[in-house]
Amino acid sequence: MSCGGGGAVADRSEGTRYRGPVATHRGASWRPPIGWGWLVALMAADTVAAVGLFGDIARHVDRTELLTGADFLSGWHLVLYGGVTGVGLVLGLLALRHGPRAPLRLLPSATYGVGILCVGGLADALWHEAFGVEAAFEALVSPPHLLILLGLVLLMVAPVGALAAGPGRALDGVQSVVLALSVTSLLLVVSLFTGYLTPLIGGSELQAGTYLEPLLGTSAEDYDVSRGLAVALWFSALVSVTVAVVRARTDPALGTWTIAFGFLGLAPLVANGDAATPLTVALLVYGLASDLVGLRGRPHPLLTGLATAALWVTLFAAVARRGDLAWGRELWTGVVTTGFLVGAAAGQAVRWMGSEPREATPA
Fold first, then answer.
1. Alpha carbons 281 and 231: distance in angstroms, whole number
2. Which among 362, 279, 330 has a CA at the least distance from the CA of 127?
3. Whole-angstrom Cα distance, residue 275 to residue 287?
4. Burial of 151 by CB count in 10 Å (0-12 exposed, 13-18 middle, 19+ buried)?
5. What pLDDT does residue 171 have?
6. pLDDT at position 25
7. Across residues 270-281, what is the average pLDDT?
């Protein structure tokens, strides 16, 4: 029995998809494998973490004079990690109620998210100790902060994953509210980390003469960085989603992606001449990597992420070899990390949508 009125869970059996009182025909209401009380508690903790993230990012980008390496466990960091601790408490109670494997079985993304956030928090503390505290754009794209983004995204999508774990399509009112809040929190967290291009903060008027760069953009150099980060994020999403979707529906021969992106790499050469050579080489490497990671059926999302990261590693390595790499450590490593996360997310999303929904039964 689930906490909060989730009710009994139907059993899987031979010849019948699900047994029990839960209706499974299209349009019928159904009971998720975890009660709504657990999901409400999870969303409350997620909300605290999102509020802490909002305050911490505002501090990093607007009040940089207050940043010190000694305040890791103070201020907004306490709110952020307080929310994460709340999620951990929910998972711990779930384990006590339904057995030690219940968190991973019923809320897998939240379980992974807490683990990744613990690693990300440690990495962030070590990064601050070694390199100081990041500010402005660097705070949005430094690898430890992007690791924290990954953990938070997994926390925010956990209710969606729980509500989508069964064959039903109709949700009741409480479930729908939890779903809405989960989606809102997810979009807010991602928008905060992409504050250089989101219309939610700042640049909401997309007009010449009135447009202001979102969240950041107080100098010509800021505009250049903002455009560069936006281009990298958009292009990572474009190529990753295209490859993941096409591969999910077809089984192309070895060399298909190398040919496709090799030809695509001719476009920047035609448009910009030899100055575009690093991008041309990077596109060829991406095509080759995409071919290699797909040798055995559908590639794992981590492999699709590595292929996208390889594109940006090649680009920045070629620019550095040329001798005019202007971006600092956080910016270029942040783009590489972002490429990996976007590629992995695209691969996982396609993989998830193409799989059969399943219901996880509590112990």
1. 17
2. 330
3. 21
4. buried
5. 76
6. 39
7. 93
Per-residue pLDDT at 70 exceeds 90: no
How many whole angstroms separate alpha carbon 24 and alpha carbon 30? 7
Q: For tokens 């508690």, name the residue.
A: 41
Instruction: Give the pLDDT score at 306.
Output: 95
pLDDT, mean of residues 270-278: 92
Tens-digit pLDDT profile for residues 292-306: 987 766 778 999 999
Position of tokens 């997309």?
A: 206
Taking each helix axis from N to C end, the angle separating 143-163 and 76-98, rounded to the nearest 10 degrees, works out to 40
7: β partners:
2
27: pLDDT strictly greater than 60: no
∠ CA 187-103-88, nearest 5°, is 65
Q: Phi and psi of 113, rounded to 5°?
A: -60, -45
| Nearby residues of 276 by Cβ (< 8 Å), 6 or more positions away | 268, 269
Alpha helices in 63-142 (DSSP H): 76-98, 102-106, 108-131, 137-141
Least confident of 76-90, 101-115, 330-344, 347-361: 347-361
Q: How does DSSP classify residue 360?
A: P
**CA separation for the pair 344, 336 (Å, rounded):** 12
User: What is the rounded average pLDDT of the residues 41-62?
Assistant: 80
Backbone angles phi, psi at 11, to 5 degrees: -95, 145
User: Which pairing describes strands 16-19 and 11-13: parallel, antiparallel, or unpaired?
Assistant: antiparallel
**Prediction pTM value:** 0.79
> How far apart, in whole angstroms, are the C-alpha atoms of residue 5 and residue 32?
10
How far is 328 from 143, CA to CA, in rounded Å? Answer: 13
CB 361 within 8 A of CB 11: yes
